[in-house]
Amino acid sequence: MKNRRPGVVVAGLHSGSGKTLVTLALLQGLQKRGYVVRPFKCGPDFIDPRFHEWISGRTSVNLDPFFLSSGDIQALYDRMTEGLSGGVAEGVMGFYDGLAKKTSTYDLARILDLPVLLAVHSKGIAETLASVVKGVRDHRPDSRLAGVIAVQTGSPKHGEILSRALEEEGLPPLLGTLPRDENLKLPERHLGLVDVRELERSGQLGSLSQQLEHFSSNWHWEKIGIFFDRPSRESLSGRSDSPDSLVPGTKRSGNQKKLRLGVAWDSAFRFYYPENWSALESRGIEIVSFSPLQDPVLPEELDGIYLGGGYPEHFLEELSQNISFLESVRSFHASGRFIYAECGGMLYLTDGPLENEKIRWAGLFPYRFRMNGHLRRLGYVSAVPVGEEGWFSGSSSIRGHFFHYSELVPKNPAPEVSPGFLVDGRPEGFRSGPALASYMHLYFPSSPRFLEEFADQLENNHSHMRKSSLF
After folding, report:
1. How far apart are CA 280 and CA 443, in angstroms?
2. Among candidates 28, 8, 70, 19, which has minimal Cα distance to 47?
3. I want to staple 343 with a disulfide (CB 3.0 to 4.6 A). Which of 309, 427, 429, 432 is the partner?
4. In this structure, are strands 435-438 and 430-432 parallel, antiparallel, or unpaired?
């Protein structure tokens, strides 16, 4: 089979169908068989890509038709797989979910012209699998369905029944199975899977890797391999990028000023689009990581800081007990330098959790927050920064997504705080002097103008600090 681009898309029938496990098994199995592959994630997700990176040693890149045009997605995929064997892109939700907005896994596979491997949760199903696969294949004439991986199977006999059912109906073949096994489970919490670093510390990941290798050893790798190229000599020589690195391949700016942006990066703050960092670096901005959990103060000579989302609610006391770091954030804000925060990063800039008022966080915004047992908001968003003179005054709309369980509770009396953005004409987020924060996770490359003004905020701080140092 000859496809235009090397690689595959891993789809499912629904969330929880086993897409992540299948993707991890593919990444590991292909690598052990001499292929060099890049992981990708369809749609807005910060957790699954970290698992991709753990098992592959390569930065996982988000591909999202809501954020980028078809041409930009194709260019990004091609750049990130250049010289490699291809890519493995994990889908989002069910294969056709998102058709109305053209953001489904099907849409991504169509844009990239990649074959699709369907992960099917097969507990309690036998020959009926054939009707399910036939329905998925025929729902769209260009579904590109090329194979099936059955997840949660029982005995080897179960796999044989599923394989024969597909073969007798002339459907895409069964390429492998992952059986029901306690060692093949990924723990979850309210935002999805438990963060990979937590599992790494507990030793669970080593066992998972071994089990994936064991259970995928009898997959039809000779049939899977036809979707990939053999890697170039350069790739085989060990070219790699660290999972914690910026996305490589972006053209670097000739800007020699080297603006410095501090980025929170630890177990509490982990939700970022690596493409945001890469886009910022291409504009002459140096990314400097710091840890609100462990560092005593912010790094020196920063022109701005970026607090991403994550799980700060699981580190309430640790964050509040790092008093010197909180003081350095408050001093940074008081000095007039730029602070940008998203979701969990925004919570860190409030007074802290409503349920425990003894815990005090940065307090830049006069709110506390409380966690809920259900999602408050989920979905794509298009936002316009609220501008004024010198403050994102010329920005056009920028795209991103919501995904949060918490809500903000204002102090009494309710404070007056300027909104940071408008979403469908309604205020969203806040700004306080040089601080801009909201629940939104923004995809910076979707708005070149926003990127320019973000860089301008840092440049203004850089110039101010340089002048101050002369006196």
Report:
1. 11
2. 19
3. 309
4. antiparallel
Tokens (6 digits) for 96: 């056709």
- pLDDT tens profile 281-297: 999 899 999 999 999 99
Q: How many residues does the chain have?
A: 471
Rounded alpha-carbon distances, angstroms, from residue 289 to 189, 191, 302, 398: 26, 23, 11, 25
3 state SS of 10:
strand
- Are residues 9 and 91 in contact, defined by beta-carbon separation less than 8 angstroms? yes
What are the tokens at 53? 């990176």
Higher pLDDT among residues 301 and 200, named by residue: 301
What's the rounded Cα separation, in Å, for the pair 81 and 39? 9
CATH superfamily, domain at 7-236? P-loop containing nucleotide triphosphate hydrolases (3.40.50.300)
Look at strands 86-90 and 7-12 and give their pairing: parallel
Q: Where are the beta strands (DSSP E) in 133-249?
A: 145-153, 174-179, 188-189, 192-193
Q: CA 171, CA 134: separation in Å to the nearest integer?
A: 7
Please identify every residue annotated as catalytic.
343
Q: How far is CA 316 from CA 96, 148, 351, in A?
A: 39, 43, 11
pTM, rounded to two decimals: 0.87
Give the Cβ contact number of residue 252 at 10 Å. Answer: 10
Predicted pLDDT at 233: 65
Q: Report the pLDDT averaged over residues 145-157.
A: 96
276 to each of 17, 96, 116, 124, 261, how far by Cα in Å?
A: 29, 27, 28, 43, 12
Whether the predicted pLDDT of 203 surpasses 80 = no
Average pLDDT, the chain: 88
- Token code pair at residue 97: 């979910």
At residue 90, what are phi and psi to the nearest 5 degrees? -80, 130
Q: Which stretch of DSSP H or E encloses residue 441? A: strand 441-442
Cis peptide, bond prior to residue 413, ω within 30 of zero: yes
d(CA 45, CA 47): 6
Identify the CATH homologous superfamily for domain 259-468: Class I glutamine amidotransferase (GATase) domain (3.40.50.880)
Checking DSSP bridges between strand 37-42 and strand 61-63, what pairing results, if any? parallel
Q: Sketch the domain layout of the chain as residue ranges.
A: 7-236, 259-468
